[in-house]
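Hi,

I'm pasting everything inline rather than attaching a file, because the server keeps stripping attachments. The sequence lines come first, and each chain or strand is labelled.
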Amino acid sequence: MNITSRDVILLAHAAFGTLAGLAALWVFVEALNAHPGNAGRMYKAALIAAISMGATWILGGYWYVHFYPVDKAIILKGPWPFSHNLFMETKEHLIFITGILAFYLPIAVRDKVYAKPIARRMVLSVAMLIVLTDLAAEGAGAIIHQGVSIALQRGNEKGRQ
Amino acid sequence: MMNTETQQPTRASAAFALAAAIACVFNTALAWAKDAYAPLNTFMASLTGHHWITHALADCIVFVGLGLIFMNTSVANKTDPKRLVSILTWAVVAASLGLFAWYLLF
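And the predicted assembly:
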């Protein structure tokens, strides 16, 4: 078994991104049924979303700056250049939007979500936007990975011919 | 008649909601600008070693900076709360689709 720090960082980036999305979904569900008893739990879930998003930013950023150039070169020589030109370019900037929303979520949740319809509406909107943009980023990550995989596969096939 | 306190978000919530909306739109505008104008990309890379790191820091500064400014002014609090939710939602939708459309078309 040969697991490098490159692999660990990439997988941890995806794992924290998924955790942030799940925590935001948890906040959404708690907000649907907001009452004084679940305010603390909702705040903890919002903090998990914000911290996980911070972790995925740092890990993803480190990986993007230090390791991605090799993958990018492979993708651009392969049959799926759009996995970089469209999906990576969008993802590397979309994740900032998800991050800003995740950092805002604990601030919105600190309001009396159980007592104020407007605070509940804000938390529901922000949590759902985090879930949707996070899912889009996860999907883009899968397409980028496939872009590398297909390029290497086709390269090997050409080499054997 | 409902208590007005139940219709208003906290000062911090309103301020940072508006700051988040602006930061999301700023993020997309900066992505467009550095993609369209290579010297900006180079300049941003020269500041921290990579344009992506500078971009992340710029977004954080806009979000936190504007949030703190709006907390100390009444701009966000004077905005209709329902409108504030709509502004943030539509800013995120427009900024996200704006990114995708830009890299799809250009």
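Chain A touches chain B at residues 57, 61, 64-65, 85-86, 89-90, 92-94, 96-97, 99-101, 103-104, 107-108, 110-111, 115-119, 121-122, 125-126, 129, 133, 136 (CB under 8 Å).

If the labels don't parse on your end, tell me and I'll reformat.
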